[in-house]
TrEMBL record:
The lineage of its organism: Bacteria, Bacillati, Actinomycetota, Actinomycetes, Kitasatosporales. InterPro entries: Epimerase_deHydtase, NAD(P)-bd_dom_sf. Belongs to the NAD(P)-dependent epimerase/dehydratase family. Residues 6-83, 131-203 form the NAD-dependent epimerase/dehydratase domain. SUPFAM superfamilies: NAD(P)-binding Rossmann-fold domains (SSF51735). Residues 232-244 have a biased composition (Pro residues). This is NAD-dependent epimerase/dehydratase family protein. Residues 228-248, 277-298 are annotated as: Disordered. It comes from Streptomyces antnestii.
């Protein structure tokens, strides 16, 4: 059955990929974004669809949020820097399901990072641990992984491991620092779409993590090894059945069957491929002003 979802922060990285996935599944998407950090150019693929609506405005505008949500079947709050309570109140009042996406962060001595989205009677919180990477991010694979990949492609020293001569080795302070997790944006969106379809998780906070934790030193060594291999990423390869999802994601996997497709090796390969592409040519993206206006919400 076709449904329509309100996506706050829909011109961001996660929100725009989610819009693509919803439209591809035959659903409708109403994008609410004030464009303070979002970019309409990220919606270039979705823009021609008659099932896409774009509204420039704030997720803190109670009247606007209520009006838009009243015309939708559910919502996803992907505007990470904006308080979810206005949308959560509207979802409770209107009886609409809401996914609220928040971040966890790197793992330090105290374990994984802080809580994700706020939880209410109509809200499912999704807490993403680590860094979301992939297309439409700038840089696409983040400052750490993307930076290591760019330096490897250029033949420069990366972190604690030199690509080339041993004299290029640079020590990472503290033995590599905190343990980082990385999740490809398509894995995040796959989890969100599965949650929207599954339902039954209101009032819970579910953890999402695509890879196990890795220190900067370990990541630098892995990037160096994969760069020497020169193995291109295989976007069609299935998930590795011997590599179960991180323990923290057990509840999400049990509820939806979600398994991340991008292992750390595959993420590194994708980051290296992007770094090689960027080094060989500049491929401009479509600018927001080049996009024809979408049909206004009626």
């Amino acid at each position: 059955m076709s449904t329509t979802y309100l996506v706050t922060g829909g011109a961001g990285v996660i929100g725009s990929h989610l819009a693509d996935a919803l439209l591809a599944a035959g659903h409708g998407a109403v994008i609410l974004d004030d464009l303070s950090t979002g970019d309409r150019a990220r919606l270039a693929d979705a823009w021609p669809s008659p099932r896409l609506r774009f509204v420039r405005g704030s997720a803190l505008d109670e009247r606007l949020v209520g009006e838009l949500l009243s015309r939708c079947d559910g919502a996803v709050h992907a505007a990470h820097s904006v308080d979810v309570r206005v949308l959560a109140d509207a979802a409770h009042r209107l009886g609409r399901p809401l996914l609220s996406v928040g971040g966890g962060g790197a793992e330090g001595p105290g374990g994984a990072g802080g809580p994700g989205g706020a939880v209410g009677p109509s809200v499912t919180g999704v807490r993403i641990f680590g860094e979301v990477v992939g297309p439409r991010r700038v840089p696409a694979y983040g400052a750490v992984l993307g930076g290591f990949a760019a330096r490897a492609v250029a033949g420069e020293a990366i972190g604690a491991v030199g690509v080339g001569e041993a004299a290029d080795v640079v020590e990472v302070a503290g033995g590599g620092g905190p343990r980082r997790r990385f999740t490809h944006v398509t894995d995040v969106v796959d989890a969100l779409v599965r949650l929207l379809a599954a339902g039954g998780a209101a009032g819970r906070v579910l953890d999402l993590a695509g890879t196990e934790g890795v220190t900067d030193a370990e990541l630098a060594a892995l990037v160096a090894r994969r760069a020497d291999m020169g193995a291109p990423p295989d976007p069609t390869s299935p998930p590795d059945p011997t590599s179960p999802p991180a323990t923290a994601t057990a509840a999400l996997s049990e509820l939806t069957g979600w398994v991340p497709r991008f292992t750390l090796d595959r993420l590194v390969d994708a980051a290296l491929a992007e770094a090689r592409r960027a080094a060989s040519s500049l491929v401009p993206g479509r600018r927001a002003e080049e996009l024809a206006p979408v049909q206004p919400l009626s």
